[in-house]
């Protein structure tokens, strides 16, 4: 499948046929100003398929898991990986609470009763402050409103409802063909801080109208997560509530994908485009960030080595700080490459720093080369910086995404809870 075969479209999670969404403000966290004339940001959302979907999910590997993760996982196991509806809230993670599972189950029950569907076919997710009791009363009042306002064009209402410290909503969708059927994959994501590769990094919701078995849906998701969301780091902290949920309702009308054939590869290519694009958006909107960092490692002996090295660089606090200061301190790149848990010959490694304003070679064969500091400063003045690493030891490659480390990151997290 070529890039030309993919068409970027609008619509986010509603780009796929048969998915409708809604979002509203319910008051999970009381605003500083209770003026009734002020319109508050959405803090809860829902999206629903017209028909039952095959569902796949990947969850955080943090040992502390939010109650919604536990409940969603149990629901999908009980339903045989079937789902119809998803509800998510922001401002409160419903994590480390004695009544957390009870509240998460109650959220599923509310949705199921209002939509007249089995409770185990509801996915629930929460994001926000950890360790504060989730008030259920605002959610009880919000569910009928969310159901009433469901619409095929309200993807933005949902995308804004899951934002916490995010400064922009994050949506992406593509159109592609399988056989004669026109298929779609659309997604939305939230995340700005507490993001580190250990799947899943943030809350991510993806829909498709492509017909594909639950088994292959899960396989595709797990494979693409490895080279997208798991290659993203903002601050080295793996959230307790990370989740990616992928639902397929089959309404595009293609022959169901049940084998790892050409159709499956086409589906994975489209899924990668959506997930990689959302990953890049998450990196660029990192808390306090002023620059997107994209590290491309090529010439690796195997895929895991390429991933490990690229991630090591974008995770380096010292390198991230240097990029904020627009300082071409390439030694920090080599340092991060050097402590990566991988087997390679450092004496063959080349490094370039690149942006829309040019490229500067800083390292060849593991050693520094002369370069113009003035040109380097110009290259690093861009808001998107690319770190090109060539190991010169194979044909595999990988990309990792991150952001610079700024003063504002500390300001945001110094009083996040209060």
- The geometry reads as globular
Low-confidence stretches: none
Q: How much helicity do the residues have?
A: 25-40%
Largest sheet: 9 strands, mixed
Mean pLDDT across the residues is: 90
Q: What class would the helix/strand composition place it in? A: alpha+beta
> What is the first-to-last residue Cα distance?
49 Å
N to C succession of SSEs: EEEHEHEHHEEEHEHEHHHEEEHEEH
Per DSSP, the total helix count is 11
User: C-alpha Rg, in Å?
Assistant: 22 Å
* Percent range for β-strand residues: 25-35%
Instruction: List how many beta strands DSSP finds.
Output: 15
Quick summary:
It contains eleven helices and 15 strands.
Describe this structure in words.
This protein has helices at residues 67-79, 100-115, 137-148, 155-161, 214-227, 262-284, 303-315, 317-324, 331-338, 373-380, 407-414; strands at residues 7-9, 19-24, 44-59, 82-89, 122-126, 170-178, 181-190, 203-208, 243-248, 292-300, 350-355, 358-364, 367-368, 384-390, 396-403. With 418 residues, it is α+β, with helices and mostly antiparallel strands. The chain is globular.
Topology summary:
Layout: E1 7-9, E2 19-24, E3 44-59, H1 67-79, E4 82-89, H2 100-115, E5 122-126, H3 137-148, H4 155-161, E6 170-178, E7 181-190, E8 203-208, H5 214-227, E9 243-248, H6 262-284, E10 292-300, H7 303-315, H8 317-324, H9 331-338, E11 350-355, E12 358-364, E13 367-368, H10 373-380, E14 384-390, E15 396-403, H11 407-414
Parallel strand pairs: 4-5, 8-9, 10-14
Antiparallel strand pairs: 1-6, 2-3, 3-4, 3-9, 6-7, 7-8, 10-15, 11-12, 11-14, 12-13
């Amino acid at each position: 499948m070529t890039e030309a075969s993919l068409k970027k479209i609008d619509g986010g999670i509603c780009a796929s046929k048969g998915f409708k969404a809604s979002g509203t403000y319910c008051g999970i966290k009381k605003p500083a100003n209770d003026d009734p004339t002020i319109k508050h940001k959405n803090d809860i959302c829902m999206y629903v398929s017209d028909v039952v979907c095959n569902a796949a999910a990947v969850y955080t590997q943090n040992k502390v898991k939010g109650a919604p993760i536990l409940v969603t996982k149990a629901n999908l196991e009980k339903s045989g990986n079937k789902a119809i509806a998803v509800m998510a809230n922001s401002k409160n993670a419903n994590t480390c609470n004695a009544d957390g599972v009870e509240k998460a189950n109650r959220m599923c029950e509310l949705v199921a009763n209002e939509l007249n569907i089995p409770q185990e076919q509801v996915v629930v997710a929460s994001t926000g402050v950890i360790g504060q009791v989730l008030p259920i009363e605002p959610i009880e009042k919000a569910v009928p409103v969310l159901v009433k306002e469901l619409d095929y064009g309200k993807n933005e209402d949902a995308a804004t409802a899951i934002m916490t410290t995010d400064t922009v909503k994050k949506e992406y969708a593509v159109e592609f063909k399988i056989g004669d059927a026109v298929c779609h994959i659309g997604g939305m994501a939230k995340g700005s801080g507490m993001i580190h590769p250990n799947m899943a990094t943030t809350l991510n919701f993806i829909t498709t109208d492509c017909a594909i078995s639950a088994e292959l849906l899960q396989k595709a998701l797990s494979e693409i997560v490895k080279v997208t969301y798991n290659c993203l780091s903002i601050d080295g902290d793996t959230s307790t509530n990370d989740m990616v949920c992928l639902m397929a309702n089959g309404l595009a009308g293609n022959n169901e994908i049940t084998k790892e054939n050409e159709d499956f590869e086409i589906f994975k290519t489209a899924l990668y485009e959506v997930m990689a694009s959302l990953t890049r958006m998450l990196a660029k909107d990192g808390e306090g960030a002023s620059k997107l960092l994209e590290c491309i490692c090529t010439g690796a002996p195997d895929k895991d080595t390429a991933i490990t090295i690229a991630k090591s660089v974008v995770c380096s606090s010292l390198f991230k700080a240097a990029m904020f200061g627009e300082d071409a301190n390439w030694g920090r790149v080599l340092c991060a490459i050097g402590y990566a848990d991988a087997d390679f010959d450092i004496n063959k490694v080349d490094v370039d720093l690149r942006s829309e304003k040019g490229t500067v070679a800083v390292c060849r064969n593991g050693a520094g080369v002369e370069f113009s500091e003035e040109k380097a400063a110009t290259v690093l003045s861009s808001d998107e910086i690319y770190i090109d690493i060539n190991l010169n030891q194979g044909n595999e490659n990988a990309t990792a995404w991150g952001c610079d480390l700024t003063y504002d990151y500390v300001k945001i997290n110094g009083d996040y809870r209060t």
